[in-house]
Specification:
The chain is α+β, with helices and mostly antiparallel strands. The chain is 44% helix and 10% strand. The chain has a four-stranded antiparallel beta sheet with strand order 1-2-4-3. Helix 3 packs across helix 5. One of its GO terms (cellular component) is TRAPPI protein complex.
């Protein structure tokens, strides 16, 4: 076979291969007169939409499986526990994890509340901001509101958000030698990130305060920064 014939055959094969990449023949279509088969593109499956193409507002009330939630949190605890030295360090690491979650949660909450509003409103007073944490943040993260907001009797710059049955600790069994550990430090980090983002810097910690009927009752203690208290006094 001559070189010219070989080159001609290769050009035919390359053309056919390119056609097969561009189109997929439909099943059961008879070939038209002329010997070539009719070729039509296959439509994209309706259920193959990318997750990034879904509108955020339509997933507002979507729920996550509790089994998946507890498994993921268990993995976070185990991952963190292997890299710390002591209970204080473990709670600090959990707080950092929570802070990252809180910054993203705040961004999503603001987008949903102000995305369709012509006159978006930003809270500048302390009590409305605490109500946002008590209601909107808890619903967005845990699917329910917190049980109470209390002000410290001793210090004017301290507030407490109380959750009688926090889902984050519902399925956690803490050993006796680590009884002082509060895994809700993750929640404290989330709250601290939200307050920082809304312009109310504070130091937030979690404390286990069991009560009859509520063995996992948790108090999120918010100690506001001096600058936030001074601004609140000026707005009065």
């Amino acid at each position: 076979m001559s070189y010219n014939n070989v080159q001609a055959r290769l050009s035919v094969f390359s053309t056919a291969s390119q056609s097969s990449l561009d189109y997929i023949p439909s099943v059961g279509t008879p070939p038209p007169s002329g010997g070539r088969q009719s070729i039509t593109p296959i439509p994209k499956a309706s259920g193959s939409k990318n997750i990034y193409d879904r509108p955020l507002n339509k997933t507002r009330n979507a729920e996550v499986s509790m089994a998946a939630y507890t498994f993921l949190f268990s993995e976070v605890i185990q991952y963190t526990q292997k890299r710390v030295h002591g209970i204080g360090d473990l709670e600090k690491r959990l707080g950092l994890f929570g802070y990252r979650i809180g910054t993203r949660a705040l961004e999503l909450m603001v987008w949903r509340s102000e995305g369709g509003s012509k006159n978006p409103k930003r809270e500048t007073r302390l009590l409305p901001v605490l109500y946002v944490v008590h209601t909107q943040l808890w619903k967005a993260i845990f699917g329910k509101t917190a049980d109470a907001i209390e002000k410290s009797v001793e210090n004017d710059d301290e507030y407490m958000i109380i959750d009688n049955d926090p889902p984050i600790t519902r399925y956690i069994s803490i050993p006796k030698e680590m009884s002082q550990l509060s895994c809700s430090a993750l929640t404290a980090g989330i709250v601290e990130a939200l307050l920082d983002g809304l312009g109310f810097p504070a130091r937030v910690t979690a404390h286990s305060v069991p009560k009859e009927g509520f063995p996992f009752r948790t108090t999120i203690l918010i100690k506001l920064d001096r600058s936030a208290m001074e601004r609140e006094e000026a707005l009065k």
